[in-house]
Design a protein that fits this description.
The structure holds 2 protein chains of 2 kinds. By secondary structure, chain A is an alpha/beta fold. Chain A contains 16 helices and 11 strands. Chain A has helices at about 20-30, 65-70, 85-95, 105-110, 115-120, 145-150, 175-195, 205-210, 215-225, 260-270, 285-290, 290-300, 305-315, 325-330, 335-340, 380-385, and strands spanning about 10, 30-40, 75-80, 100, 125-130, 200-205, 240-245, 250-255, 320-325, 340-345, 350-355. In chain A, the strands form 3 sheets. Chain A has a 6-stranded parallel beta sheet, sandwiched between helices. A 3-stranded antiparallel beta sheet of chain A has the order 7-8-9. A two-stranded antiparallel ribbon of chain A has the order 10-11. By secondary structure, chain B is mainly alpha-helical. Chain B starts with a strand and ends in an 8-residue tail after the last helix. Classes of the chains: A alpha/beta, B mainly alpha. The interface of A and B includes residues 43, 354 and 367 of A.
């Protein structure tokens, strides 16, 4: 089994989502990742998605979000407000190839753990800062979560219905995007170091990481001065395009037609060849002008049909259709299961459960996967692995009852 | 100072009350649509080729 990042150590001082996602990807590719947490301040995600909405005695280990983002990592908690905690971090950093952190710019420098501080210990270190707005510019000290970054990056302005308020996407869209961008940046810096021997500093702004998603709107303004209106599920370039109700409660299918040929395939597949001769639907502009009538006609066809059956029928006819799947559908989805998308994680309290892969790429020569513990392994394991002394510890927390 | 996990500074009773939102509250605020009572059986019955 090829393990491309074997021998690379990542000190992951980031928290919550974007940074841990980056470290998880690197860990799945074979790096040894050490998740560093503050002793006094919990990661919010430690509490989210507890098994059966209940709390066990070691409830700080029960959150499935935390587990998913930190699978395979070693772990340690440090009090960075104490000199001993800072010394321990520096000892780990000196034995690490990559530092990840996701604080506001002043935080790590305030601890004496900025890039220059750690480069003095290890000149070829790669230090990646993932902050809301970057390390420079007037916003640099502002704090951020996905809820603020989607609007700030222009995504929310494009999301919603005409005349309605801007909307969020429904997920923390910018975090995993930034985590994957950070992983690409780190891998690039590793390649640079291998060729030159040089480490470097990576300044990654979650704000900027999201901007490529709205490149179309930016370019349209740049070229034409146009400010787009929110379009709901509709598109300027495709008609019909929308989500249509299917049989059952809150079941839907998304349908989009790229051109007249695809529209005609839709007419045939749905058993409505007469739509091809309907002047209201003759050509993209006509279909746009009569989109409400178009939607009503298509919804009449979809309403009595199972969403997956309708998707299969339309796809077979060459129409881009996608059933709207929720969590249950995805976990039970025959296509994802057939491709082995989910990895089975077995916890003593829940038994085996399918977890989505962190790096959804099917390599022909390797299999990225969590190789280590379900939860960050203990501080003793971490310090022993890094061959540093734990003598500076003045107190050890109760042992962590890890679930395997 | 070095530790294995964050200090559970708050008593579990306090955390449990704050973290365990009753289902009816979650539904009342619109966060949860429903709970499938047979979700374990559904997942147990799923096919596929998951790797551990």
């Amino acid at each position: 089994m090829v393990v491309p990042l074997e021998g690379i150590r990542v000190l992951d001082a980031s928290n919550t989502y974007a940074g841990p996602t980056c470290a998880r990807v690197l860990s799945d590719l074979g790096a040894e990742a050490i998740h560093v947490e503050a002793m006094q301040r919990w990661e919010t995600v430690r509490m989210i998605v507890q098994p059966e909405n209940n709390l066990a005695e070691d409830y700080w280990n029960g959150g499935a979000y935390f587990m998913k983002r930190n699978l395979g990592k070693k772990g340690i908690t440090l009090d960075l407000k104490q000199p001993a905690g800072v010394a321990a971090f520096k000892a780990l950093a000196a034995k690490s190839d990559i530092i990840l952190e996701s604080f506001a710019p002043r935080v790590m420098r305030g601890f004496g753990l900025g890039y220059e501080d750690l480069r003095a210990l290890r000149p070829d270190i790669i230090y990646c800062s993932l902050s809301g707005y970057g390390q420079s510019g007037p916003y640099r000290d502002w704090i951020a979560y996905g809820m603020g970054l989607e609007p700030a990056s222009g995504i929310s302005q494009l999301t919603g219905y005409p005349g309605g308020a801007p909307m969020r996407s429904g997920i923390s869209l910018t975090d995993p995007l930034t985590g994957l961008a950070a992983a690409v940046a780190v891998l690039t810096a590793l390649r640079h170091r291998r060729r030159t021997g040089e480490g470097q500093y990576l300044d990654l702004s979650e704000h900027e990481a999201a901007l490529p998603l709205v490149a179309g709107a930016l370019l349209d303004y740049q070229m034409n001065g146009r400010v787009p209106e929110r379009r709901g599920n509709r598109s300027f370039t495709h008609a019909p395009q929308g989500v249509y109700p299917c049989a059952g409660d809150d079941e839907w299918i998304a349908i989009t037609c790229h051109d007249d040929a695809e529209w005609e395939r839709l007419c045939t597949a749905t058993g409505h060849p007469e739509w091809k001769d309907d002047e209201r639907f003759a050509g993209l502009l006509a279909r746009h002008a009569n989109h409400d009538a178009l939607d009503a006609a298509i919804a009449d066809w979809t309403r009595s049909r199972d969403k997956l059956d309708a998707m299969a029928l339309l796809q077979t006819a060459g129409v881009r259709a996608g059933a709207v799947l929720h969590a249950r559908d995805l976990l039970l989805n025959e296509h994802l299961s057939a491709r082995g998308h989910f990895e089975t994680i077995t916890r003593s309290d829940t038994g085996p459960k399918p977890f989505p892969r962190q790096l959804p790429v099917h390599f022909s020569k390797l299999t990225p996967a969590a190789r280590g513990p379900l939860l960050p392994a203990s501080a003793s394991t971490t310090t022993r692995s890094c061959a540093i002394s734990r003598a500076s510890a003045t107190r050890t927390s109760p042992s962590c009852a890890r679930r395997r | 100072m070095i530790g294995d996990h964050p200090d559970p500074a708050m008593p579990i009773e306090f955390v449990r009350a704050a973290a365990r939102w009753p289902l009816d509250v979650l539904q009342e605020i619109g966060a949860i649509k429903q709970v499938d009572p047979d979700f374990k059986e559904r997942l147990d019955a799923r096919g596929g080729t998951d790797e551990t």
